[in-house]
Amino acid sequence: MFSFLKKLGFYSTFSRLYDPTTTNREMSSPEIRAQKKQPPSPITSLPEEIFVDIVARVSRSYYPTLSQVSRRFRSLVASPELYARRSFLKRTEQCIYVAISKDQTSDIHWFTLSDGHRLIHIPSLPPMPLNGSYVAVGSSIFVIGGFQDWSITASVSLIDCRSHTAKALGEMPKAVAGSVTQVIDGKIYVIGGSDGHSPMKSRSRSMMVFDLETEVWKLKPWPDWEQGKVWFSSVEIGGKIYMRTCYNSFVYDPLAVTTNNCVGDEVLHSKEWLGACVIEEVLYYYDVRGKCLRGFDPKARAWGVVNGLEGLLPRGCSWSKAASYGGGRMVLFMQADEIWCAEIKVERREGGEIWGSVEWCDVVLGGNFRIMDCVPVPVLL
């Protein structure tokens, strides 16, 4: 595509936009502003159909940057015509969406990880509740509950990751924040969380289920296991929800016909797993204390350490979040003095050992920010 842009005479404009070293300050410098007074680029005279076709073939991770270039780009990035063209191309792009709070007390703002190894703010999405739960369904993200203006909310919003717009979907039967939320067999399960102003003292004993087909909520009786505990982390593996409290880890099978559909797992709980992701039915998380990437195989019921990463990741991290990225890869966000991100490919070798290789590792965001969650979304082009 870039050779085509070069022939049209505006490759330099696109190459600058795609240069990961270009900062917002540079884009607004006197030198850049002076360039705007020069004769218009040939891109402005392109027929609309060709213009849409070119931008439709650009990775969506660059759209937030493109939207800041001009009114024409900003209008196009939000237009249904662009996404209709992308849909015609019939490709799916794995995107990483990141929920960020300025200081863990302010509202959530959404960023996306660009191919240029940066976190780019999505200005078209409004601030959202703190400590909500986020789950991807298709090319959308459900934002469930949380704290809005210091009050707990039962609101549910839907982010359309194709157009970067959000809409309200009504309310849950009960207001909660920081719940365990996973999708199983066309239903969103919302388990526990906080139902008051203090997440550690006021603990919800509710389980709510949203049927994606009927769009109806059901409030279910609270099971006997771990009543009122604070849930720290969860993943879905093979149709089951693996979740952790301070006191134990559990495996919940919502489709089981027996009453004993949730059991404690002491082996799983032997590690303080947080911010985990799943690749090929194996749970992975970065142990900030042990300074290693660990994996839990539910079939073997055993933990292991991913080999080959020694000395390749930043030290002194206080927390981490991981998200699967497709093709046996994950992105791992780590908080040191700045927010780092590494793309890691994992593979199981003969003998069962898991090895990893770092595709890239770099600072993606500076300043006093905290990543609350990261959500992988397969966006249909």
Automatic annotation (TrEMBL):
The protein's name: F-box domain-containing protein
Record PROSITE patterns: FBOX
Domain of life of the source: Eukaryota
InterPro entries hit by this protein: F-box-like_dom_sf, F-box/kelch-repeat_ARATH, F-box_dom, Kelch-typ_b-propeller, Kelch_1, Kelch_FKB95
Region of interest called Disordered, as start-end residue ranges on this chain: 22-41
Residues annotated as domain F-box: 40-86
Gene3D superfamilies in alphabetical order: Kelch-type beta propeller
SUPFAM superfamilies, sorted: F-box domain, Kelch motif
Entry-linked Pfam families: F-box, Kelch_FKB95
